[in-house]
Amino acid sequence: MGSARKQWDTLSGDANLYRAYFIPGQNAFLWQDTDNIVTAQTVDGKVLKRFQHFPTYGHVIGGDLETYLFADEHWNVFSGYGDTKRTVLSDGISPSFLGSGKLFNLAIDRNNTFFVTAGVDNDRSAIADHSPLNSGQRFSKYGGVTLWNAVTKQPAAKLRGNSSKTHATISPDGQWVISGDENGIGLFWNTDRPEIRHRLAGYHSGIYLDDAPFATGDPRNWDESELIDAPAGLNNFTIAGAFIHNSEYYLRFGNNSHVAALYEAGSPWPVKYFDLGESPKLVTYGSQYDRNTAIATSPEAGILAMGHQSTGGISVYQFDPDKLTLERIWVVE
Q: What is residue 219's three-state secondary structure?
């Protein structure tokens, strides 16, 4: 698909919607059909890799086309396939996909250094306290945002502070992890110092100061110094985040909102807001947080693709890093 030709091809009428995925550093994408065959192919149709598998509820592959990770419906995570398949995370029978209304999302950096998992953040324990392989316990200790070593497949850091349904991603260069949740909390970490948590500014309230000496409810607990005017239709409750220009800029998408916020990596302040359009209604509208699977970006190309709420089809947007614009260039009904 190219924005100049505006051409599309139907690859399959029986595809697994969990999910198509842009491959980091490649002019290619990953998908799975309902016969459980996983295919990595270029946008010109060249098949780079294809293998028999079983149903996935989210999967990613590194630019080397060897580092393959996937999750099942119970939030277990695995690496490899066929004879190379091994369990990475299986430490509880709950939360599950059906019980939590959200996929256990996965993200990997371009250099295959780190990957990130995120689901429902409800645990504050340290990595040393729990093994990622302990299926006998009821509740997972790794349901929140976790940074993993992509080589060893071992947890590197728990990135805590979100609440309830949480989405997280990692910058293509592996330097930044950003997260957002259904309670409006946005956070980011530098992977060189994962023990230091940074808060994203709320669109209307600013940054909550953890060390402020004032009583609860005192407005001096919030830093509003660099807020920009927020348009109507914004929603702090985050359904997804995605890098849109290499590792420099990313977008934050609100639940039941057609407005996206642009942030610069390493800064807590929103840079600009983009109205993505009220019609056709976008996939951000609805009741389930598994809708984030229909939001994808290619940070190298500056492309955002989003599904529509109920009519099928997608809207495609082009980001201009010099003008800081996000223009809808194509609507496929």
A: helix
Cβ neighbours of residue 89 closer than 8 Å, sequence gap 6 or more: 75, 76, 77, 117, 132, 133, 140, 142
Mean pLDDT for all residues in the chain: 92
CB atoms within 10 A of CB 266: 13
75 CB-contact burial (10 Å; exposed 0-12 / middle 13-18 / buried 19+): buried
CATH of the domain at 128: 2.130.10.10
pLDDT at 4: 57
Tokens of 233: 């239709």
Parent domain of 259: 21-332
In this structure, is residue 269 part of a structural domain? yes
**Residues of the chain above pLDDT 90, percent:** 73
DSSP assignment letter at 229: P
The answer to whether residue 152 is domain-embedded is: yes
Is this prediction's pTM over 0.85?
yes
Q: Which two tokens stand for residue 62?
A: 């590194």
CB neighbourhood size of 115 (10 A): 25
Q: Which residues pair with 174 in a beta bridge?
A: none
Q: How many whole angstroms separate alpha carbon 20 and alpha carbon 238?
A: 21
Residues 209-265 have pLDDT tens digits of: 988 888 888 888 999 999 999 998 899 999 999 999 999 999 999 999 999 999 999
- Residue 119, in any domain of the structure: yes
Residue 87 zone, left/alpha/beta (φ > 0; ψ -120 to 50; rest): beta
What is the C-alpha separation between 254 and 275, in angstroms, rounded?
A: 12
Count of the separate structural domains present in the chain:
1
pLDDT tens-digit profile of 269-287? 999 999 999 999 999 998 8
pLDDT band at 1 (very low <50, low <70, confident <90, very high): very low
In a domain, 106, yes or no: yes
Q: How many CB atoms lie within 10 A of CB 247?
A: 18
Residue 159 structure tokens: 């990135």
Q: In this structure, what are the phi and psi dihedrals at residue 220, rounded to the nearest 5 degrees?
A: -70, -5
- Residue 143 has phi, psi (to 5 degrees) of -75, -25
